[in-house]
Batch of 2 targets.
Target 1
Amino acid sequence: MSKNKSEYLINRHDNQYEVVIGLEVHAQVTSQSKLFSTSATKFGAEPNTQVSLVDAAFPGMLPVINEYCVKQAIKTGIGLKAKINKRSVFDRKNYFYADLPQGYQISQFKDPIVGEGKVILDMPDGQKEVGIERLHLEQDAGKSIHDLDPKNTFVDLNRSGVALMEIVSKPDLRSPDEVNAYIKKLRSIMRYLGTCDGNMQEGSLRADVNVSVRKKGSKEFGTRCEIKNVNSIKFMQMAIEYEANRQVDLIEDGRTIDQETRLFDTKKNETRSMRSKEDAHDYRYFPDPDLLPLEVSDDFIENLKLEIPELPDEKKKRFIEKFKLSPYEANILVSDIETSNYFENVIKKSDVKLATNWIIGELFAALNEKNLEITESPISAGNLSKLINLIKDGTISGKIAKTVFEQMMEGDKDPQKIVEEKGLKQESDPKALEALIDKVIDDNRDKATEYKSGKVKLFGFFVGQVMKVSGGKANPQLVNEILKKKL
Amino acid sequence: MSDITKQALSELVENIKSKKLSSSEVTKAFVERSEKSKELNVYITEDYTNALNKAKKFDEKPNLDLKLPGIPMAVKDLFCTKDLRTTAGSKILNNFVPTYESTVTQNIWNEGAILMGKLNCDEFAMGSSNETSFFGNVQNPIDKNLVPGGSSGGSSSAVAAQLTPITIGTDTGGSIRQPASFTGTVGLKPTYGSCSRYGIVAFASSLDQAGPMAQNVKDCALLQEVISTYDEKDSTSIDFKRNEYSKELTKDIKGKKIGIPKEYRVDGMPKEIEDLWKKGIEYAKDCGAEIIDISLPHTNYALPTYYIVAPAEASSNLARYDGVKYGFRAEGENLIDMYEKTRSEGFGAEVQRRIMIGTYVLSSGYYDAYYLKAQKVRKLIKNDFDDAYKKVDAILTPSTPSSAFKIGEKTNDPVSMYLNDIFTVPVNLAGLPGISIPAGHDAKGYPLGLQIIGKAFDEQNILNIAYAMEEKINFKNNITDWWIK
């Protein structure tokens, strides 16, 4: 494991700088109803149609914890190999904003539901462990819409009160690539668990990115800046690159970095100061007196452990050990639960090696071209499995199989039927092939003589001719064998 | 029957059940008396027409199995009532009409009672004299220009003046017991978690508790029995076995151990309060109780602790009144300007004072010194009571350090106003039940109350003690109907 191969460093003059990154990921809990009310959480509903009196903070309304969201958070904690806190406390984070009806957000400050954990990243040069500091539950705010009217701001409270998990990493990340791998791994784990759909377009996964730089070899952390609310991995990477370089420039100029909150402007590809440390809100956190401390029993946690499916790291290990996949192949196949499910369905009835190659090769390429997810694949796992069996038992050649595959991509057709309808079945009858080969040798007497006199390279020519004459259907292995005998 | 409004709740219930009176007759009597009593300013919102209609409907198909069959009543304007304006005594909610009903009031209507209107109170229940209400002072029927106490001042005045047979208030630091004491009525603050807070405009969530106010202990017990239910909509509601308090009420308190906390002998306590307390001890002895001297050593810290915890919670609870969603809005140049104007114009001075105190004690750098320390002291105060209850069954104290004062007498001196709560706030901080019963008069003829504090969930016990002492005390309120022309 060479650690330095992919090291991400910024060079300025004679100095090399290391980038230190920590992420606060906000992941929307997959749940039918909100964290403290029974309103629906469906994405894309008409504005203000999923708002209860609690979400809109009417006088005398009280929050009641949604047990399902608590379970989801604990399951996520288990997935992150983290300490589950049997007692956690909901606090109020006080600030005024038009889309924050209560005038405070209910969050967890001092006593989060989940403590320290870890996530393993598979980087090209080996594995890397990223520490998780904590995971806590909190309410989302509503949405302010500023561009519908020149004078007024509109507020949509559908999101107000939706449950979020804030997952805080330790400052263990060192490059945009590691951030990419971290987010993808986190997303993968939560999707395996069914605790967050990870949909970044719909805002189910967003992150605040903390960036600082320091001279290579330094043990001290530099002053960090927090880049707020970045909602795609690409933008996170761009923001980190920009921000790290900005900080290095400041240091090289002999200036200091101000601890501040910054915004990433996706159009200009730059970060901009949003507020300085001095202007930072005083959130006046204090325990929410409307809610008792949240206490969960050992049994409650143990029962949730029984619901935890095999997670990507374990699945990868099993794929390598049981199916003899390479770590590279296993990584790709376990990266999301749908792919791994698809793979396992295909290999239920077909050859593992062929299935792996066909899924990672042909299928991914074809899906990519059509911009489809594995769940939207036109070819079902069952039919891909049939196709692989047709190859394996010699009914069709690999080359013909590609033609069949292309037709299957047009609609989920049974490969057996395609082969029969189009007469693509491989010719494996030795007698028929002999006749075919005799004819080819006969037609190319001169070349046959050359071959016999030592021009062995011409063997390929004969194979090609036989395949051509057979319309690609001749069994290449048998052709080889018979040709060798005949020549 | 011309003296309908003079009847206590239990008499009215009996008369309706035996069909001697109809709900319409009773409702009409209280509505008429209320209409003649506008000078007391107890109502913020009257709902007489609806009340009379509901009474008529009740009489058409009377369900006499209910606990409050066709009984009209007005409630403190801190309880959200569906389709009837709920203001919390504030300009900021001047136009607010809830689409929902508080659990406590719903429980009352479920037992057949009929809403007559919403009663005046201090703004967001912050006050001890009803003088912080946006809707003006309330007169104490005991004497003109006398405060009725607060924050449930409209409620206490209405019961004392017999404009409603019973009512409900809320008590965060004494807001039921102090006005009961000032008006010669009975008021119970139940154990925290006994009555649901759902639909009650919040002041300080960890202290607020709804409770009954009545002319006598038995009525108080019956109303407590109706309003106290476990409610899943309030996460601090407690699921414990609730008694049928009125049925199980007994005057037999022989052998009950009653504690007398020496720390309640505060400096400068008027002699007549001291005398009242002594008299109370004698009454308790007469009833067969055993008197035991006890110590509640952290009593001195209760008031400062309360005036940190309550404003801290209030500052956050009142953040929702921002002009964005409902209630009063003052137009502004931008969002911040709108907030500032709305809240400056919408909240009165006392509410603003408490929001500022609360914001201050929660702010970074002060949190540990104030809020956190106050929480620790609160625990010590609770421990004091826990220790005391190893030796006694209940505790007897005066309800207030003085009788009712004149309107305007303390408005410019918030600290002296806050001192009114000195005997009542420890009970809220410890989450215990406490009842105030009228026990005598001062030299001016104003009523004085005694407070009986119980163990958590032991409402029955303090109701019993109050019931027994009430008979011995045989208190009579001197109300002359001076306001009726």
Target 2
Amino acid sequence: MDITESSVSGVKVAALKGRLDTATAPAAEGAILGMLEGGSKVVADLAEVHYVSSAGLRVLLKAAKQAKAGGGSFAVASPQAPVREVLEISGFDKILSIHATRDAAVAGLA
Amino acid sequence: MPLTMPEEILLLMLDDETGRLQERAAPSGDFAIAGAVLAELALAGRIDTDPARLYVVNPAPTGDALQDRALAQIAAATETQDSRHWIETLAADADDYREALFARLVSKGILKRVEGRFLWVFPERRYPVISDKEEREVKARIMGVLFNDEIPDPRDSMLIGLCRAGGLFSLLLSSAELDRVQPRIDAVADLEELNRSLADAIREIYAQIARYAPMV
């Protein structure tokens, strides 16, 4: 999985690319939790993620949990339709802040 | 050493004083134990799931004989199946899993094994609790998650789904409390795909029972 980090309007963006599953979860978790340190605002952009497994979902949940505990904030941007469906089936959309575009997610946190 | 989820769920299904399994936990208790074994494998990074499939990502043994037995069985399958298939398949061996789990809980000093007779005739083995510290800790952990709004850990979500599957919340909570926290139980449990498959499998059992049970 490729993870590209950038920053927009004081919000850090992790653009993930590939599959988010058991194989890639540790790297994604390390990157996102690292970006959240110090109470930062972080968006995980899933535009280039075509598959999220249960292990991948747990990464997003841990990020939201850490953001809440550390005084930061976390949002998910631009999930593809199959990924969005998995997020909705599991009720993650009730816990995570999910936005249709990266700009909307950044604006929501900025 | 902390208990594994199969050990925790079996302990919660046990009537502490009589040492017999709670009637309420049957027949879904077998599925809850199977689900608990799969939950440990998932959190150990050995299997992963999505709504359509359960698949092995790392066949390396975990060192836990029960989990490794299930992992080997899944790894040896010629076709990929979904979580519900594996819950139902492992549940068929629930007697073996339960016996092994009881033996572990006895060796850890949590239960004792009592051989007796039921109705003076039938041999019966019971497992009264001799140390309730572990069970109290598990219950406290569950209640902590249910009665606050924090985002749960994956392990706690799994355990709450297993308790829901085993029908255990009606033993742990008053009916008024249960009514109040049922939406939270469902929200926390449904975060995990294994819990949703478990709930589907159990709904089907009860539908079958209702279909074939004599009308009274």
